[in-house]
Structures are given as C-alpha cells and as structure tokens.
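step: validate -> pass
step: tokenize input -> pass
step: predict -> running
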Amino acid sequence: MRFEVVGEPAYTALKVYLGGGESITAESGAMMALEGDVEVETHTAGGVLRGLMRRVLAGETLFMNTFRAGPGGGIVWLAPSSPGHVEHIGLMDEGVIIQDMSFLAYHGDVKHEIVWRGLRGMVSEGDLFWLRVYGRGGVWVNSYGYILERELKPGEEITIDNFHIVALSDDVEWRVRTFGGLKSFFFGGEGFVVDVKGPGRVYLQTRTLPELAYLIRRFIGGEGSKGFRFTVSI
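step: predict -> pass
step: emit ->
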C-alpha cells in the first residue's frame, strides 16, 4: 500500500493505492472516487448500541466503509468534509484518540471504538464522542486549517480549546473543564478546554468550524451571538 496527499495546502484529498487484498476503512461519506478492482463493505462503528447513541446524541453518521482491493488492485480517493490538511499517523501497537470530525480513514491490523467522555466534565456541542483507533497500522486525520503536531515531554502540560483538537496519543493524561468565569463561559466564546499532560503527542488544527459558522451567520442575518449548548453524560 502507498498513498499521497494531493491538493495541498487547503483543499486536500487522499489517494490510496491498494494492492490485491489490501484494504482501508473510512468515515462514511468520505469517498470521492474508486478506480480498478475495489469492493465496498459498510458496517457500524463501535458497535450497534454505541453507534446509535452517537447518531442520536451527536448527529453523526452510524456507518463506516471498508474498501478492499481485488487481485487487480485499485485506487481509493477520499475527501474530507472541510477544507484543510490531511496527515497520516503511524501506529505500532499503540493508539490515538481522534475527535469525530477529524477522522478520515485507517489501515492495517487496527481496531476502533467510540470513546464516551462522560463524567470527566461537561462536553460541548458537536464534540460528544471521540474515536479511539489502536493496533498496528495507521490512521489518516483531517483538519479545518493546518495540523500542528506538539510532542509533550513527561510531566509537560498544555491547555487546548476543545474545538482545536484533532487527535491525542492515548498515552497522555487529559481532562475537560470549563474555561474562565461564568461571564466568559456564557458570553466569551471560550466555553471548554482540555488539559493535556505528557508524555505523548497532540495534534491541533489552526481553525475551527464553529467560529466559521458564527462568522457566516453574522453576514447572512442570523443570530447576533454565538449562544451555547452543553451536554452532561448520564
């Protein structure tokens, strides 16, 4: 298997060349085109029950697609839903936690599960679940904007706006909390942050979709304030 990222820096797409019997699994709706001898199998993500929870509570898709090449091999084109960067994260018997909107695809001897963040704290709109991908292989993530990788030393800490997170290696310690006082929480646009402690890696995106949506609403006569909504697990 080999791959290339095309259309950089802003409107990237992923082109994966599959040999006979090789496969990748991608987020539903990510396929742009297929070439050659490729079959598609659709299945649920993270189990039927958890998949249904994700669909009902977070408004996300229930399904993933596995693309498998026949003897003749083939090519799979994948396109993220938002303009930005695509990056490959290699996995060697380790895992990575990815925020929902940043997962694109994975390959190899890899499993996945939905991570319910639950009672670690309140969780913000559009970010109810994170996906954990683990095993031996690799995963492609996408961002709105550019992806910045930060390597944390043992004991080193960083505080990140939750919407700027693309992924975390699953050996880091992390917790979600509200940011600032009540005035900041309700009106300041900085509702939740994630405290991350090394060792491990964090992947950040330089832009966020909620801020883009707010900017668009201002110019099309929508609501004048961002508003807020939060969810607490049960």
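step: describe -> The two ends are 42 Å apart (CA to CA).
step: cleanup -> pass
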